[in-house]
Structure formats: C-alpha cells, structure tokens
Amino acid sequence: MAENQMRLQKFMAACSVASRRKCEELIEAGAVKVNGRTAALGDKVSPHDKVTVRGRRVVMKRDRLVYVALNKPRGFITTMQDEQGRKCVRDLIDGVEERVFPVGRLDRESEGLLILTNDGELANRITHPAHHVAKTYRVTVGPDVPEEKLDFLRTGVELDGRMTAPAEVTVLTREPSRTVLQIVIREGRNRQIRRMCEALGLEVRRLKRTAVGPVRLGMLHPGSWRYLTAEETDRLRAAAGLERKDAR
Fold it and tell me: Which of 18, 136, 183, 206 stands the most exposed, by the fewest C-beta atoms within 10 Å?
C-alpha cells in the first residue's frame, strides 16, 4: 500500500461517517465517490483525495475521541437522521458537540444501553463477531419457558440457514405469566435475540440491553446519556483487543 493510503471504508470510519461495516454498505450501494468517480470496495485513498458520500464531502477530523452511553427508550430508531421523520437517537444527545454514531443497533421497540462514538476502529471491533465482545440483555418472555427451549437458546438457533453462536442464558425470575431471562451473546445479527425467541415460539414482551462488554447501563434514566469514564473506555477498548487511546 502506498504511503499515507488506507482502505476507503477505514478512512470513512476515521472521518466519523459511520462504523466500518456501515461504510462498506454505503460503498457497495454506490453512495460514495472518490475524486468524482463512484468508489468500489477495495479502493484506497489518502487524506488528499476528495471523498464524498451522497454528494457531501467527508474529511479527516482532529476531534478528540469521545464515548457516550445512552439509555435508548422504546420508540426511537438507532440512526442519526431519518428521512421519514421518525424519532431517532440523535434527538437524545443534545450537548454532544462531536459527530458520533451508534455502535450496533437496538430495534425500535428495544431499549437500553447504546454506545455512540467517533472511534471507528472501536466501533468495528465491537460489532464484528470475530472479536467476541459480549452484549448482555434482560429479556421478558411469556408465559413460561420449558427447559429444552432454554437449552436451544444456549446451544444455538438456526437463523437464515446457519446456527447462532452459543449464548449464556440465565433465568432471573419465573412467574405464572412471564419469565425474565438474562441473555449474553457475542455476535450481532439483525434483531438476533427477538428472532431466536420467535424461532422457538417465545413471545418477547420486553427487551433491554444492560451491558456492552464491561460497560453497564446502571442507573442511567431512559432518554439520558453520559460520557464513559476513562476507566470504562480503557476496559471497553481492552475487551475489543485495542490499546488505550486519549479520550474525553
């Protein structure tokens, strides 16, 4: 690779466009141009190249890396803008001056911990299943869950023709009308936990993410956000296999 060049999706993530995986999707969709030419996966660029996404130029910023924890309520979609005018998580982080983006997704009816950052490298590590960063959920299903279905959740459920990775499943409470589970997964397929439960005939009544790696939701109120502490940031980067970086 020529000096000062990097893969296009890595450059875009470093410019805080989105996570590296989302940047790859934008490139494949033909939304990215380099020096006026529609880009392709595998292209390499330098900071001197003109890169645009849907006509808007992106440039390498010198913003300090920031890491935000948001307690996403139900009814909000995990995006920074929505052409249909729906409520999105960008509406909840007033006061964050840097341009950040969500790490992974919570669907509209799910709630709980969402990490937002301008650290594209970390976002890619957390969302990529190869790095095995744990995501912990509190899942309310109804009414009761037979033990054999819990075993299926633990060992794997077939989705889209392939099995999910083993999950950690703990019964927190059992009541006549509902069962509350804690489920820990280390991959992030679209709506994975809901689809796993649906495949087993389990009705998901509430789904809340309570932790991403070592970062816990704690007592953060729905719709509120906070910056991660330096210790949390270091531990999160370590869980993703990255070294410490200067952060807010």
Answer: 206
Tens of pLDDT, residue by residue over 72-104, are 999 999 988 888 889 999 999 998 888 899 998
E strand intervals along 84-243:
101-102, 111-117, 135-142, 158-159, 162-163, 168-175, 178-185, 203-212, 215-216, 225-227
b/e burial code for range 88-102 (CB count within 10 A of at least 16 → b):
bbbebeeebeeebbb
- Catalytic site residues? 107
Res. 1: pLDDT tops 50: no
Nearest to 78 by CA among 106, 117, 99, 118: 106
Two tokens, residue 39: 């880009």
pLDDT in tens, 146-200: 999 999 999 999 999 999 999 999 999 999 889 999 999 998 888 999 999 999 9
Name 135's bridge partners.
185, 212
Tokens 């932790």, residue located: 211
Q: Is the pTM of this model over 0.85?
A: no
In terms of Cα–Cα distance, which of 105, 32, 101, 20 is closest to 67?
A: 101
Tokens of 115: 């990490």
Q: Residue 27 in contact with residue 39, Cβ under 8 Å?
A: yes
User: Which residue has 């330098």 as its token pair?
Assistant: 46
Short-list 208, 197, 205, 210, CA closest to 146: 197
Residues belonging to the chain: 248
pLDDT at 2: 47
CA–CA gap between residue 235 and residue 240 (Å, rounded): 9
Q: In which residue are the tokens 């649906």 written?
A: 198
Task: Map residue 124 onto helix, strand or coil.
Answer: helix
